[in-house]
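Researcher: Quick sanity check before group meeting.
Model: Go ahead. Protein one:
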Amino acid sequence: MDEEIAIIDRSARKERLKIFFTENKKKLISIIVLIILIIFAYLIYGDFKKKKQIELANRYNLATIEFISGNKIKSENELIDIVNYKDKTYSPLALYFLIDNNIINDIKKINNFFDIVISNKNLEKEIKNLIIYKKALFNSEFESENNLILILKPIINSDSIWKSHALYLMAEYFYSKNEKQKSKEFFNEIMELKNSNLKIKTETQKRLNRDF
């Protein structure tokens, strides 16, 4: 008797499944087609991004070659275009090349380029912090105390691996202004920081022993 009931239950389940698939055939086909389209779109987008990266790499390399060969105007325009592209790899590289080779000397323009690169939402957190630090380093010779701290604020108020670098920059900044008490406060903060860069911490200890 139990075996007969089990056979009937299996038969009923099969019938219910058959009815379900019959009634929802169009919906199921639509879902399957949609999943296939999403997979294809993802693969196509990945291939597109890879091709764009290769294209951007070639453009960057060509721009640097143009600069070395003496075609500085063409190189400058191409590098600026790469910065504006907001690529997480080649936009920062293009900006650093512009700065390191003194291709652009307009401070306002360079800071604007820094902001463009930093605004890229695809940047990893610590890469973004590194670029912020480099922006502060670039501005350290001519910016005011308040503006320099404002630039470094996202790093100083975090547990970033670049925090000790930011604090050291501020300590050196105040020392150069002969504001030794403020400088010492930043040096001391580096010594108290748990994840201070070892090289920065060692140099800080030397500075404290020698100059304070």
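Researcher: Fine. The other one?
Model: Protein two, sequence then structure:
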Amino acid sequence: MARINLLPWRAERRKQRLQEFYSMLGIAAVLAVVISLAIVLYYNAKIDTQNDRNNYLQGQITQLDTQLKEIAELDKKKERLLRRKQVIEELQSSRSQMVHLFDEMARTITDGTQIMSIQQNGDELSIQGRAQSNARVSTYMRNLEASGWMTNPDLSIIEATGGEKGLPYQFNLKVTLKNPNAEAAADANGAATGAAGQGGKP
């Protein structure tokens, strides 16, 4: 006996297409979820890598900051040591200079002249004294200029006070101190530098 399909073939075909559509829609949804998860995992991995780089760089920056602080402290220590060295060198230089200075003061004093006080302010020396006459003071100033350790004598006051019969004139003068040994060493260094510079030229 032959079977007869009483269902409309159009409805059956529509139902089949609808099932296929839902199947494709489900597959597309699953693929979308998988792709989204893959994208999220990829960018999370990139973010983690960048965070690791940032943490590494931050650690290096911290180390550099520490090293810069140590370098700054070393620079301060170096500056303090250089200042101490300079002070010591100045003291040594001034010590020898003062020995020569007092020797020159004794040598340059003329007869009929008496030194009452000496005051030093940096490279300037103030001298107060008494003299028999203006000529004695002029001679004393010439001796100071020729000493080599003092220069530019400047007489500020000379007056007859009558306080002491043999030395009636009181005077105040200033001289500039210099160190001929230091100047000679500087000239020698300059000459040596110039000779070395000329020797290097073809």
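Researcher: One line on it for the slide.
Model: Residues 9-108 form the longest helix (100 residues).
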